[in-house]
Input
Amino acid sequence: MLVLLLLVLVGVVTAVVLVRHGDTYARGAPARAAAAPAPARPGAGLRVLAGCAGAGAAVLYIWGALCVAGAVMEAEDGGTGSAPLRPCRTSEHPELSGRIVDYSVSYLPLRFDCETADGDGYASDDVPGYVNPGVAVLALTAAGSAVAAGYATELRARARRRPVTGPSNTPGGPV
Output
């Protein structure tokens, strides 16, 4: 699991570096040195952060959805050893696992719930506990960074449109 997350992180960082400096790798360093540096755009770092956080949230949500889909496939698989449902067999709730009659699935938040006949039940361990909080934090980070980048751009645009007033243009100043 940790290896998969590290691979995703390396992939996102590599994609960001290649997008930002792709022409350097394609043409070589001397061609890049001759060109004038582009002016910094306001909120560029926040846009990169928003993109990376959004991509991380999407990848993490897809991982959780695959975990839920795998649990559903295991629950639907009949035959020998299918009672109680395989995703509902846990050492945490051994008294409840023998009374499981059905299951329910939720995709927001990602959950696989095992249900008993009397309405009691519990969440299966098939969806890792870090998935839902991780998706929420990454999605909020992406949204907040995107809003902050837009705000920074708007502030710079307003500052450019604002007229410059000197001492002679102010009322009551020297003429």
Notes: The chain has a mean pLDDT of 75. The radius of gyration is 27 Å. The first helix runs from residue 2 to 27. The beta strands are 100-107, 110-116, 121-123.
